[in-house]
Design goal:
heterodimer, A: alpha/beta, 5-stranded mixed beta sheet, 4 helices, B: about 150 residues, 5-stranded antiparallel beta sheet, 3 helices, 5 strands, about 30% helix, globular
């Protein structure tokens, strides 16, 4: 799994590609943690390149969202979620917990 | 036991209880799924269920990554795919784990229990025992956890 970060004025775009499981999820968590430690709390998580995600990845997402939503300081939004993974999110009741966007431009503009 | 039908092929593999082996474990399972003609969607679900079960073995039965083993039988029958996972770790009975609260708001959402939810939703039968369910393997030590996951053909 690869993770790329692109900083914008009001948010960071995190793009993960490949498979997110118990082995690779810690790497994803580290990327988010480094950013929140430096005071960044608005994230557009580009999931369009994710082939597979297990509960290890979902735990990272919920941890980050809880952290970002504290004191209304920010938010984790999801972008380009593949259909199969949308079904995974539905199965565990994650859809109400995150806002979903189709494309990156709209997602980044959301934070302006 | 239900009528799973005649056994057509038995595959056995042993993996170290480390997360880096989730990829080869998934590949091992998907080979059998394809032999049985399961769709891409079903393969993904079975793969995920086994990933979650093995992750639970590593985290909860073994208390973390270890050089100890996960023994996996993948049995292709006329009607079904039977997957037996065996470990020598602490007793970990999935039936005793509380179900996750899937409609809770963000603050109330707990992190755990999602893996088991996938296993139960994506597999047709989930049977836990402290003795072998189908195969006793080549190990002289028969103790530990045995988890049987079954996916029926259509």
């Amino acid at each position: 799994m690869d993770v790329f970060t692109t900083p914008y004025n009001k948010c960071d775009v995190i793009k993960a590609s490949g498979r997110v499981d118990s082995f690779t999820a810690p790497k994803l968590a580290e990327v988010f943690l480094a950013l929140t430690k430096s005071g960044r709390f608005n994230f557009a998580f580009d999931m369009s390149g994710i082939d597979y995600i297990s509960s290890a990845g979902l735990r990272v997402m919920i941890d980050i969202q809880k952290n970002c939503r504290q004191a209304n300081r920010g938010e984790l939004i999801l972008v380009g979620v593949p259909k199969r993974i949308t079904e995974t999110l539905e199965l565990v009741g994650f859809i109400p917990l995150f806002r979903l966007f189709d494309n990156l431009e709209k997602a980044v503009n959301n934070f302006q | 036991m239900k009528p799973y039908g005649n056994i057509q092929k038995t595959n056995r593999a042993v993996f170290p209880a480390r997360f880096i082996f989730l990829d080869p474990i998934r590949e091992f399972i998907v080979r059998s799924c394809k032999n049985l003609g399961f769709s891409q969607d079903i393969c993904y679900r079975v793969e995920l269920a086994v990933d979650e079960a093995c992750s639970n073995i590593i985290e909860h039965a073994y208390g973390g990554e270890t050089e100890q083993e996960i023994e996996c039988y993948c049995v292709e029958t006329e009607n079904a795919l039977l997957i037996q996972l065996h470990d020598h770790g602490f007793s970990f009975n999935p039936d005793l784990v509380p179900k996750p609260k899937l409609s809770a708001g963000l603050e109330e959402r707990e992190r755990g229990g999602l893996g088991l939810h996938f296993i139960r939703q994506y597999m047709d039968d989930v049977i836990y025992q402290e003795k072998p369910v189908i195969f006793s393997g080549k190990s002289p030590n028969q103790k530990g956890n045995y988890l049987l996951l079954v996916k029926w053909k259509e």
